[in-house]
Amino acid sequence: MKKNVLISLKLTLVMIILCAVLYPLLIAGIGKVTPGGGKGETLSVNGKVVGYERVGQKFTEDKYFRGRPSAVDYNAAGSAGSNKGPSNPEYLKIVQDRIDSFLVHNPGIKKEEIPADLVTASGSGLDPDISPASAYVQVKRVAAIRKLQENKVRTLVDEHIETSLLGGPSLVNVLKLNIGLDKMSEL
Questions:
Q1: What would the DSSP string read from start to end of the chain?
Q2: At what angle do helices 139-146 and 174-186 cross, to 10 degrees?
Q3: What confidence tens digit (pLDDT) does each residue in 8-53 have?
Q4: Do residues 161 and 130 touch, judged by C-beta distance below 8 A?
Q5: What pLDDT digit, counting tens, does each position of 70-107 carry?
Q6: Angle, nearest 10°, between helix axes 139-146 and 150-159?
Q7: Burial of 86 (C-beta count, 10 Å sphere; 0-12/13-18/19+)
Q8: Cα separation of 53 and 43, whole Å?
Q9: Domain map (residue ranges) of the chain
Q10: What are the residues whose beta carbons fall under 8 Å from the beta carbon of 41, sequence distance 6 or more?
């Protein structure tokens, strides 16, 4: 029995060193060589940080493209989804409210034309990207408010479509798109 206890203590000590010391140091080291040095990739305008490239932000003004809704109100400290399924009445009401709000802010758009990612939150609640269809459906509103030609705003969306290296869906980073939009409006 004494032999088993000694082996258990040794194994416990080895696992503590592996899991609580070496593994975190390895992950921190990998983080240091990634873009942003493990602190995230920031986006700046005129030398001022305006956000993180991979963390969604809340855009409520009609002059900006809107991103995916967030179940955590874009709080990066509390990343989470809603965990409510499509048959949950409370969830269905939230989605319907998002649809109604979108239709109010985007007159002329029919309910069927609204892409799902504009009315459903992502699993993390912090998704920085929308589908190209979600960007295109907002072009008319943004162009009208900023008094820009729709085709120029549509071209801006085209320029911000990112394709996956592994064949995943094409995406548009909302913060990058809105920064480009502000630059376009300054001209």
A1: -HHHHHHHHHHHHHHHHIIIIIHHHHHHHHHHTSTTTTS--EEEETTEEEEETTS-----STTS------TTTT-GGG-------TT-HHHHHHHHHHHHHHHHHSTT--GGGS-GGGTS--SSS---EE-HHHHHTTHHHHHHHHT--HHHHHHHHHHTEE--TTS---EEEHHHHHHHHHHHHH-
A2: 30
A3: 999 999 999 999 999 999 999 998 998 888 888 899 999 999 999 9
A4: no
A5: 988 888 877 777 788 889 999 999 999 999 999 999 99
A6: 120
A7: exposed
A8: 6
A9: 1-39, 40-186
A10: 35, 52, 53, 54
Dig out the tokens for 98 from the structure.
Answer: 């998002």
Residue 157 identity: V
Residue 54 has which token pair? 């991979």
User: Tokens standing for 42?
Assistant: 């920031």
